[in-house]
Design brief:
Elements (H helix, E strand, L loop, with lengths): L9 E6 L5 H11 L3 E6 L4 H11 L4 E3 L6 E2 L3 H11 L3 E11 L6 H11 L4 H6 L13 E3 H6 L10 H11 L3 E13 L5 H4 L5 H13 L6 E5 L3 H12 L3 E6 L9 E2 L2 E4 L11 E4 L4 H13 L8 E3 L2
Parallel strand pairs: 1-2, 5-7, 8-9, 8-12, 9-11, 12-13
Antiparallel strand pairs: 3-6, 4-7, 5-6, 10-11
Helix pairs in contact: 9-10
Length: 308
C-alpha cells in the first residue's frame, strides 16, 4: 500500500471469499505489519464494513474497496483536511472512473457532478440529488461514525444512508478538490446488480430523510415528467401528500396527477408555505428551476430542494 501517509493500519475483511483472496491477504499480512486480516462467514457488505470499523484503532476511518486504486497521497490529503478543518466530520475526494472504455454516459455525468461539489455548502445543496461523497473515498472521524450508529442495512444504499444520517445529526462534509481515487467501473459492480442500489431504493432513501424535515409531509413537485412522477409515487407511498405539480409543457397544465393540479411556473407563489422539490432529469433544467425559485423569493434549502 504505497501511501505517503505512513501512520496507518489496514483492516481487510475477507467476507467468506472463495476465489483465493484469503491466501493473498495472508501472504500480504506476513510481510506488512500494518495489515490485519479479519476472516468472517459471508455476511454481506454492511456487516463487513462494520466489522472493519469495530476493529480499527485509529481516530479516522478511511473507506476502500479491494478493486479500486487509491493514489499515493490520498490518505495524507484527507487526514490533512480533517486536521485543519475541525468543522468537518468527514470528507471525500474527487474521482475518476476506469477503465474509460467501460464507463457509461450516466457514470460520466455523475463523475462531473460529484467532482464539482467541494465545500460543505455545495454538498448540502445537492445532498438529495444523489450521494455527494463517492463511498470509496470516504474518510470519517470515528467519533462521528459511532455517534450516528455506523453502517446499517435499511434496504437502500448504505453509503447514502450514512451520509444522510450525518446530515440529520448536524455534521458537515467536505471534499479534497483533487482526484485521489481511481474508481473501477463495469457491469459486475454491486451498485449495478444489487436491488439495494436500484433507482426506487434511492428514492425511498431520499423520501425517508427529506420527509422528516418537511412540514406536514406536504410538497409541490416541480416536474411532471417520468422523474417527477416517480418521486411523487414514492412520496405518496411513504404517507406524504402533494399539493401541486409544476410543469412547463402547456399540454399538461390544468390536468391532475395523483389528484394534484398541474400548474404553470408563474403560479408558484401561491405555494409559498409549501416545500418544493425539483425532480427533473437534466442538470440544466435543475439549475433553471433553482433560478426561477430564487427570483420568486424562495430560498434553498429552507423552502426547496433538488431531489434529482
Amino acid at each position: 500500500c504505497r501511501q505517503t501517509f505512513a501512520d496507518l493500519e489496514i483492516v481487510a475483511v475477507d467476507d467468506g471469499s472463495t476465489d483465493g483472496t484469503g491466501r493473498v491477504l495472508d501472504r500480504w499480512q506476513a510481510s506488512d505489519s500494518r495489515l490485519r486480516v479479519l476472516s468472517t462467514p459471508p455476511r454481506g457488505l454492511v456487516s463487513a464494513l462494520n466489522t472493519a470499523a469495530d476493529a480499527a484503532r485509529g481516530t479516522i476511518l478511511a473507506r476502500m474497496d479491494a478493486d479500486d486504486i487509491a493514489r499515493p497521497e490520498r490518505i495524507e490529503r484527507q487526514v490533512e483536511m480533517l486536521v485543519h478543518r475541525p468543522d468537518l466530520a468527514a470528507c471525500g475526494t474527487q474521482v475518476r472512473y476506469f477503465p474509460r472504455r467501460l464507463v457509461r454516459d450516466g457514470a460520466r455525468r455523475y463523475e462531473r457532478w460529484v467532482n464539482g461539489l467541494i465545500e460543505p455548502e455545495e454538498i448540502d445543496r445537492d445532498l438529495f440529488v444523489e450521494c455527494p461523497i463517492p463511498h470509496p473515498t470516504l474518510a470519517i472521524r470515528q467519533t462521528a461514525f459511532e455517534a450516528v450508529g455506523g453502517y446499517r442495512d435499511a434496504g437502500w444504499p448504505e453509503d447514502y444512508d450514512l451520509v444522510l444520517r450525518l446530515w440529520r445529526a448536524g455534521y458537515r462534509l467536505g471534499k479534497v478538490p483533487t482526484v485521489l481515487l481511481d474508481w473501477r467501473d463495469g457491469p459486475g459492480r454491486l451498485s449495478r446488480t444489487h436491488e439495494r442500489y436500484r433507482p426506487e431504493a434511492f428514492r425511498r432513501c431520499k423520501v425517508h430523510f427529506l420527509g422528516e424535515h418537511v412540514p406536514e409531509r406536504r410538497i409541490v413537485v416541480w416536474g411532471a415528467g417520468p422523474v417527477g412522477k416517480a418521486f411523487a409515487r414514492s412520496w405518496l407511498t411513504a404517507g406524504g401528500t402533494i399539493a401541486a405539480f409544476v410543469e412547463l409543457d402547456p399540454r399538461k397544465i390544468g390536468q391532475e396527477i395523483h389528484g394534484a393540479p398541474v400548474i404553470a411556473p408563474k403560479e408558484i407563489r401561491r405555494f409559498r408555505n409549501t416545500f418544493i422539490v425539483a425532480a427533473v432529469g437534466h442538470a440544466a433544467a435543475r439549475e433553471d428551476i433553482r433560478t426561477t425559485l430564487r427570483q420568486a423569493g424562495f430560498t434553498e434549502p429552507g423552502h426547496c430542494r433538488a431531489v434529482a
